[in-house]
Amino acid sequence: MTSAEDVMPFCICGCGGKTKGGSFIPGHDAKLKSILIKGVLEQTKVEALETLTPDECLVVLEERGWTKFLDKARDVASRPKKERRAASKEKNTSEAWDEYTRFKQAGERLKAIDRYYMKDTKLTLTKKNIGAVLDLSDEALKKITQEELDEL
User: Fold this and answer.
1) Quick one: 12 exposed, middle or buried, by C-beta within 10 A (0-12, 13-18, 19+)?
2) Residue 114: in which H helix or E strand, if any?
3) Any idea of the CA torsion for 52, 54, 57, 62, to the nearest 10 degrees?
4) DSSP for 119-132?
């Protein structure tokens, strides 16, 4: 008689671990993706997977529908590291500033209608509800509950 553990499939990343019915142990799909992409980009054989050639790595990526990750890796690899860091920093700074500005505007709106400091009627701003606070009329904001606001 075979136990359930005996019929459990092996992780296809090549680690030899047994899955709970799927193709991968959690996180090992990303591991395999990374190994395959590295094999294609560096045009070297991948020893971790029984010496797959770069062409074979590409075939596996295509079969699994992972070519978009390869395209992104190629795009990233085509730009100098310094340029990638600068672009990432600029994007993060811009996004943070935009978010700060939106929170500040929403806070000012709530202060103007006495819904910011009042203990019983205070509305709490979150990333989810900030757009609604900025879009609703003053009359609607005066009447809305926190629960209603969070559902918008």
Assistant:
1) middle
2) none
3) -150
4) TTT-----TTTHHH
DSSP class of 79:
S
92 token code pair: 């993060």
What is the DSSP code (8-state) at residue 113?
T
C-alpha neighbours within 13 Å on the C-beta side of residue 94: 6
For tokens 């074979």, name the residue.
56
pLDDT band at 147 (very low <50, low <70, confident <90, very high): confident
Cα dihedral across residues 24, 29, 31, 33: positive or negative: positive
| Calpha distance 133→146 (Å, rounded) | 11
Over residues 7-27, the pLDDT tens digits come to 568 888 878 888 888 888 898
